[in-house]
Design the sequence.
């Protein structure tokens, strides 16, 4: 069985909920603290492929930064990738990865789909 990796922002309540659920269920996992250790472009592209999402779909649209600077932006995929790499707080989360599949664990119980 592949170990789970959760991409987590330490200040995000949804991430905390997903981590608590993993701990409650005793599910082995690694935590990728992407705010402290920046995500790479290859890593981000890999997550997009596993999630079957475009860069624009990976953006957390209720963040103040998005609303202030990007809400009306008409950006290419490569431009959105640069935005996400430069502003990791905009990355939708938590992302849970198991092998070649990934989900956005919102709500946290959704992560149980890939166990």
Sequence:
């Amino acid at each position: 069985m592949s170990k789970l990796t959760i991409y987590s922002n330490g200040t995000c309540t949804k991430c905390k909920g997903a981590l608590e659920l993993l701990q409650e269920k005793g599910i082995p996992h690694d935590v990728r603290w992407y705010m402290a250790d920046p995500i790479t472009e290859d890593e981000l592209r890999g997550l997009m492929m596993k999630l079957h999402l475009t860069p624009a779909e990976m953006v957390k649209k209720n963040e103040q930064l998005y609303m202030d600077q990007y809400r009306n932006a008409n950006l290419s995929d490569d431009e959105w990738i640069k935005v996400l790499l430069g502003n990791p707080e905009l990355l939708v989360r938590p992302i849970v990865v198991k092998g070649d599949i990934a989900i956005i664990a919102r709500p946290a119980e959704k992560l149980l789909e890939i166990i």
Summary: The CA atoms of residues 24 and 81 lie 34 Å apart. The chain is about 35% helix and 15% strand. The two ends are 9 Å apart (CA to CA).
